[in-house]
Design a protein that fits this description.
- The chain has one helix and 15 strands.
- It is mainly beta.
- The strands form two sheets. Strands 1, 2, 3, 4, 5, 6, 7, 8, 11, 12, 13, 14 and 15 form a 13-stranded antiparallel sheet that branches. The chain has a two-stranded antiparallel ribbon with strand order 9-10.
- The protein has a single domain, classed as Beta Barrel (Lipocalin), CATH 2.40.128.
């Protein structure tokens, strides 16, 4: 874990290096509030006893990231060019604030063996407010096209961390499983069921097209993430089953935004809004084991850890 944080610090320092040349630079500090909708989800699959077992299964767990975020962004731009190239650096931090009640879902599919062609077990679990952090850092080189257009591109990095403690199991509708018919009911309503921790490291390349006039800046960005690392720790507390995964994959994001300076004596202030959509897919393996007296050897399963979310952000710029 220490090495992970050291790498994160080195990446952030490298991306913000141009900000050390602050001669004639414009500095903006932007508090923001965001509405975030989406979630992480992962799937494991295989045979119940091994690859040769005729009973096949797939289990999918959905963990929502529906939360309201509060954050702060620092932007440095317009300083002395680096190697003759104008630049802009950004660093933003955000954390969830208000609770927006939502649900986490656990769905299991099985087929083969003696249980019939296909059977489904679907469980829904409540959760308290998750813990969600987001750090984004980027440095963009820019080039003007005409008087009002600008193209920017450069390295981009985001760290996402989500933590859930899930309480209770709620089964809706009658379902059939290899273990019998599951009727609608509530199981363990006051018990801790799952502790889930997920970390996404999202390095990428951002390309931004901006339209700038004295009264408006509008931009559209695309981020390509060719190498993504995702980690999770999934502790099924009631079953004493712990799974840990280290996955690799890729992702894609785009965003649209606009900023308008306030008039007259408030010209050092600006207000703006931004919309972002992101999708990340990874594949790997989960190493799982029971940490009680259950007589099952540790085992490994194929898995896929994914992220999908959309965010609407409102912000105020303070220009220094």
């Amino acid at each position: 874990m220490r090495n992970t944080y050291l790498r994160l610090l080195m990446i952030s320092a490298a991306l913000l290096l141009p900000a050390l040349k602050l001669s004639a630079a414009e500095v903006r500090l932007s508090p923001f509030a965001a509405w975030n909708e989406g979630g992480t989800y992962y799937t494991v699959w295989g045979g119940c006893a091994g690859d040769s077992d005729p009973l096949r299964f797939r289990s999918k767990l959905d963990f929502p990231l529906n939360s309201n975020l509060l954050g702060l962004r620092l932007t440095v731009s317009g300083g002395r060019p680096v190697w003759g190239i104008p630049w802009r650096s950004e660093l933003s931090l955000a954390k969830n604030s208000l609770d927006r009640r939502s649900w986490a879902a656990d769905s299991d599919w099985a087929s083969g063996g003696t249980v019939g062609p296909e059977c489904l077990v679907s469980g829904i679990e409540t959760k308290p407010l998750p813990v969600y952090y987001q750090l984004t850092v980027a440095t963009l080189a820019s080039r003007s096209i005409g008087k009002v257009w600008r193209i920017e591109a450069g390295p981009w990095y985001r760290l996402l961390y989500a933590s859930y403690d899930l309480l209770g199991i709620y089964i809706f509708g009658t379902t059939v499983s290899p273990f019998g018919t599951q009727k609608p009911r509530v199981l363990f309503p006051d018990s801790l069921v799952i502790e889930y921790r997920a970390v996404f490291h999202l390095p990428g390349l951002i390309v931004n097209s901006a339209y700038e006039r004295s009264w408006l800046r509008a931009d559209a960005s695309v981020v390509w993430m060719p190498w993504v690392a995702a980690f999770y720790r999934d502790d099924h507390v009631l079953r004493s089953l712990l799974g840990e995964a280290d996955n690799r994959g890729r992702g894609f994001a785009y965003s649209l935004g606009a900023r308008v300076p306030l008039p007259s004596k408030l010209s050092w202030l600006a207000a703006g809004a931004r919309y972002e959509w992101m999708s990340v897919r990874t594949c790997g393996q989960t190493d799982a084991h029971y940490y009680d007296s259950t007589p099952v050897e540790p085992y490994t399963q194929n898995d896929s850890i994914n992220l999908r979310q959309q965010t609407v952000t409102l912000f105020i710029d303070f220009k220094f």
